[in-house]
């Protein structure tokens, strides 16, 4: 099975380029496509901005319709699926999922699709594997890391920064603005993900993502066991 994985930023792409082969095997057939922010679902399910701006939710109706038409031409013995991965932030999970499912239902030809959310944000998946963080950053403060409640809402990337992953902590990183925060997130993903054990991650939202990938891949015998 081929996976088209849509993510909202470059740090998500950096993480999943490293993690997906760990989940479904080194020979996994997948592509991670990064967008430039999450945005909002458009009213009337019509793209709310120029496609060139590459805002994920604004373009989801167009993207799902396009993938539905494309995937319809794939051979029955090697289909494809769309995996949409985005941060939940402070949205209501049940309501947000229902809104995305409504977009999918509106497609004339619906692609096989799974919606997966990092709760609260992508760094929650990194914080689900504290040994991996300490392997990448041996000086990280254990007491800061262990105060984090997995998939809790509030101060996720800040917790990583304050654990000495970023010099000066979250306040120093916040002073760099969103471009600086984004660059730091990509660096964390690049350094931590190679150490991550996908079989033992304490983030429920990561486990959900992992299991949905394997559920789809097993249909084609792409995962052992």
Q: Brief description of this entry?
A:
The chain has helices at residues 10-24, 56-71, 93-105, 123-127, 130-136, 142-146, 156-165, 169-174, 177-192, 204-218, and strands at residues 2-7, 29-34, 80-87, 112-118. With 225 residues, the protein is of the alpha/beta class.
Can you put this structure into words, describing what you see?
The protein is of the alpha/beta class. It has 2 domains: 138 residues, Rossmann fold (3-Layer(aba) Sandwich); 73 residues, no CATH class. The chain is 48% helix and 12% strand. It has 10 helices and 4 strands, in the order βαβαβαβααααααα. The protein has a 4-stranded parallel beta sheet with strand order 2-1-3-4, with helices on both faces. Strand 3, helix 3 and strand 4 form a beta-alpha-beta unit. The radius of gyration is 18 Å and the shape is globular. It starts with a strand and ends in a 7-residue tail after the last helix. 38% of the residues are buried. The C terminus is likely disordered.
């Amino acid at each position: 099975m081929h996976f088209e994985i849509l993510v909202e930023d470059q740090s998500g792409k950096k993480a999943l380029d490293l993690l997906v082969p760990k989940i479904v095997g080194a020979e996994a057939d997948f592509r991670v496509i990064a967008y430039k922010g999450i945005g909002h679902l458009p009213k009337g399910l019509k793209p709310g901005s120029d496609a060139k701006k590459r805002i994920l939710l604004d373009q989801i109706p167009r993207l799902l319709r396009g993938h539905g038409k494309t995937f319809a031409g794939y051979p029955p013995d090697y289909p494809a699926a769309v995996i949409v991965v985005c941060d939940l932030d402070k949205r209501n999970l049940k309501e947000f999922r229902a809104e995305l499912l409504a977009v999918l239902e509106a497609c004339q030809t619906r692609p096989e699709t799974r919606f997966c959310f990092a709760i609260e944000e992508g760094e929650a998946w990194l914080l689900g594997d504290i040994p991996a963080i300490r392997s990448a950053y041996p000086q990280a403060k254990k007491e800061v890391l262990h105060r984090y409640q997995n998939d809790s809402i509030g101060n996720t990337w800040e917790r990583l920064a304050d654990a000495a992953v970023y010099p000066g902590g979250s306040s120093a990183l916040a002073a760099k603005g969103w471009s600086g925060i984004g660059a730091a997130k990509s660096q964390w993903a690049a350094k931590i993900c190679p150490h991550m054990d996908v079989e033992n991650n304490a983030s429920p939202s990561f486990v959900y993502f992992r299991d949905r990938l394997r559920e789809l891949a097993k249909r084609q015998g792409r995962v052992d066991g």
